[in-house]
Amino acid sequence: MIEIRTLDSLSFPRGARVFYRVDYNVPLEGTRITDATRIEETLPTIRILRERGAALVLASHLGRPKGERKPKYSLQPVRDKLAELLGEDVQWADDCTGVDTSGLKAGELMLLENLRFHAAEEKNDSAFAAELRKEADYYVNDAFGACHRAHASIDALPRLFPKENTAGGLLLAKELEFLQKVTNVSHRPFVALLGGAKIAGKIEPLEALVKLADTVLIGGGMANTFLAARGVPMGGSLVDVESMEVAKRITNVTLPEDLVVADSLDAPTKIEEVAVANALSENQKAFDIGSKTIARYSSELKGAKTVFWNGPMGVFEKQEFAKGTMAMARAVAEADAITVVGGGESVEAVKASGFAGRITHISTGGGASLEFISGATLPGVEVLRT
Predict the structure, then answer these.
(1) SS3 98
(2) Do 13 and 192 meet the contact criterion of CB atoms below 8 Å apart?
(3) Nearest to residue 99, comparing CAs of 58, 138, 71, 69?
(4) pTM (2 decimals)?
(5) What domains, with CATH codes, occur in the chain?
(6) DSSP structure class, residue 152
(7) pLDDT at position 203, please?
(8) Coil, helix or strand for 150?
(9) What is the per-residue pLDDT across 204-259, written as a single tens digit (0 to 9) for each?
């Protein structure tokens, strides 16, 4: 059982500056935030810290600017959204280093500009961490989605504070609580539902889940690769060729028995369901799981007591190929079980389905949740362990 220092163990005087590392890496269309979940999830911690008299210095990354100052990755839209949610002004710093935070008063907030505008952040540079250290006397981390990265604000920075001056926020504690319900599996049957485009990047979590779960259901492009590895002609479907050997090695999984196929994703002229036993023709591409697979997977989920879901069952962004993913969202929501959705596109799918409110826990970190499930050490968690 992993236990970290929490807000309950953190003691500071009124007006103390707290460096609050958040994960505001939110999806944007221009300057419009399309999903503010990651911002909203930090509000409880912000509320508690302010009630206790903290002056908050908020820091996050956004996108992959690769150490360069790029306007499209500015956190200004995030600052505006946070101010809207709080119903008050949020102070702004045009950089994340060299910022004078000494004038911040109890209850005030300042958001720093994108940490990744400095290449030193991703290099876990100690000198960069030392610059950030000057801006606060205490450190709180709620950036679970970045905890699997040994970056300066996640790893090097908290080591510069006395241990008793560092803690995980409410969000980080909640993430660990529910993900450990999955890895410890106190309630069975445990059903894992995995999808998404590729196996690559999910090999270790997949292997871990095959050992942990009673049943592993596979969908999406990942299923295409497993089926191809078993000799099923997949036509023009997306197949992760580099992961074929992995797909051959992992045998204890449940695969679709039928698929929704079409000749094109963007302008399909013929959409039909085909049995996996029948070979796909060269111009057919699989974009969703079929009706029989939906029924079988839904039945498995209905009997589950623990469910972990990561990755859509098809190209759910297209209405024609969303049926499988939406059906799984309903099945997960209706299961009498501890249900955990592991970040990424799965979260988008659950929200689009309208069932998000019926999921036990929706993780804010796709990659981090998968690495945690696989048993990997998360630097941002290790540095806060009791």
Answers:
(1) coil
(2) no
(3) 58
(4) 0.90
(5) 7-170 (3.40.50.1260), 185-374 (3.40.50.1260)
(6) I
(7) 87
(8) coil
(9) 889 999 999 999 999 999 999 999 999 999 999 999 999 999 999 999 999 999 99
Q: Find out whether the peptide bond into 158 is cis, omega within 30 degrees of 0.
A: no
Q: Please report which confidence band the pLDDT of residue 367 belongs to, taking 50, 70 and 90 as the band edges.
A: confident
Residues listed for the chain: 386
Assigned token pair, 362: 């929706």
CA neighbor of 271 nearest in space, from 327, 214, 228, 320: 320
190, 335 contact by CB (below 8 A): no
Q: In sequence order, what are the beta bridge partners of 193?
A: 217, 309
pLDDT digits (tens, 9 = 90+) for 318-349: 999 999 999 999 999 999 999 999 877 888 88
Return the H-helix or E-strand segment holding 301.
Answer: helix 291-302
Per the prediction, the chain carries an average pLDDT of 95
Tokens 């990659």 belong to residue: 367
| Token digits of residue 216 | 């592993």
- Confirm if 142 and 20 have CB atoms less than 8 A apart: yes
Residue 349 confidence (pLDDT): 87
Annotated catalytic residues are 38, 198, 344, 367
Name the strand (E) or helix (H) holding 133.
helix 126-133
